[in-house]
Write a structure and sequence with these properties.
This protein has 374 residues and is an alpha/beta fold. It has helices spanning 11-25, 35-39, 43-52, 63-71, 89-94, 104-117, 141-153, 175-193, 206-211, 343-350, 354-359; strands at 5-10, 29-33, 57-60, 78-80, 98-101, 121-126, 157-163, 200-204, 219-220, 244-249, 252-256, 261-262, 268-269, 274-279, 296-299, 302-305, 315-320, 329-333, 367-370. The longest helix has 19 residues, at 175-193. It is elongated.
Length: 374
């Protein structure tokens, strides 16, 4: 790792975002979603910051992530909601990790693991209400609920939650969300008739938390909003603050003639005599190669656009007649306080979402943490 590039993470921003979201949740508990290394921010520091801000649950995709949180001494309730075959179920049960059950085959696997662990498994039944990704479909809701009720009566597990995922919550007017909420109510009714009484019912992601009060139930699961980015481009959420600033020290600057090709393939050619600044970050660090000639960068007090092909370790910025010296800093994205681009600006330039921009920043870029919680 080198110090010339860094992703500076404001942990106070994460705590403040959670506190804001908890206020918007209007009484529902908040799960800080820290999967994928805390959306690129660092899972353990992000988890601690989320808990400090008022989160009462943590969410991960995989058991290995949840076990890493336990190894770091975090004892808050954790849900790992994606369970592929071969996962260490017994170890997860021993660690008190809640497990998402989204397929019929997982029920038997968890029951067997609970017998081996000699400890009740804590599970959340995941129902598919229309995303058609993971989750048990309507045709199997009754069978799944009955199987879990029998296992619960036998003392093998506790059904801690029932949950689902929304498909179109980032489109507030999409009727699919209302249809999914209706299906979720039906699934909850099936679970209740089977004798299941979960502690928490949850379906709301960041977007639904902010725009659909009827989706909050007992628990909400903000992911991207935890890190200060709006889940709906164009939706301003006052008080939400981006936590990551990605920057690098400039390697140098050179003057070139008009008609000079820049970087691999000469996909950028200068139209005048100009200065080119070299930034030591590339697709090996998670800067998308698609950012070539498209993404904004803040250099020498102004926004610029990447000039030419993004390479594995570096890219070039045309800064005109402005000058820089080695040691000056280029900011790829941050909160936008000083005119620098935001992760959403990058997402807009690349026709993607801000989630991808922050999550893909690689481990070669050191995370530097600021704030009260470490």
């Amino acid at each position: 790792m080198s110090s010339f590039a860094e992703a500076r993470i404001d942990l106070d921003a994460i705590s403040g975002n959670i506190a804001l979201l908890a206020e918007r949740a209007a009484g529902a508990q908040v799960m800080g979603v820290v999967k994928a290394d805390g959306y690129g921010h660092g899972m353990v520091p992000a988890a601690r910051a989320a808990l400090a801000g008022g989160a009462t649950w943590l969410g991960t995709a995989f058991i290995a992530e949840a076990l890493q949180l336990r190894a770091a001494g975090i004892d808050a309730p954790i849900l790992a909601w994606l369970v592929p075959p071969g996962e260490p179920l017994t170890e997860a049960i021993d660690a008190g990790i809640d497990l998402g059950i989204g397929s019929m085959w997982v029920i038997n696997e968890v029951i067997d693991a609970a017998r081996q662990a000699r400890r009740q498994a804590r599970i959340h039944l995941k129902v598919d209400t229309g995303l058609n990704r993971g989750g048990i479909g309507p045709a199997d809701w009754s069978a799944a609920a009955a199987a879990l009720a029998r296992a619960e009566a036998a003392g093998l597990l506790t059904v801690t939650g029932v949950f689902s995922h929304l498909a179109c919550a980032d489109e507030p007017d999409n009727p699919a969300t209302t249809a999914q909420l209706e299906a979720f109510h039906q699934a909850l009714s099936v679970a209740d008739k089977a004798g299941l009484h979960p502690q928490v019912r949850h379906i709301a992601n960041s977007a639904a938390l902010l725009t659909r009060p009827d989706a909050r139930f007992d628990l909400v699961r903000p992911g991207i909003a935890t890190y200060g980015l709006s889940p709906i481009p164009g939706l301003d959420v006052p008080g939400l603050r981006p936590a990551m600033t990605l920057s690098a020290t400039l390697v140098g600057c050179k003057r070139v003639r008009p008609g000079s090709g820049v970087s691999y393939g000469y996909r950028y050619v200068t139209d005048r005599e100009t200065n080119l600044a070299l930034v030591p970050l590339g697709y090996g660090d998670g800067v998308p190669r698609a950012a070539t000639n498209r993404a904004p960068v803040f250099v020498a007090g102004r926004r610029r656009t990447i000039a030419g092909t993004v390479c594995m370790d570096q890219f070039v910025v045309d800064i005109g007649d402005d000058t820089v010296t080695p040691g000056d800093r280029a900011i790829l994205f941050g909160p936008g306080d000083h005119g620098e681009p935001t992760a959403q600006d990058w997402a807009d330039a690349l026709d993607t979402i801000s989630y991808e921009i922050v999550t893909r920043i690689g481990r070669r870029v050191p995370r530097v943490y600021t704030g009260a919680v470490r």
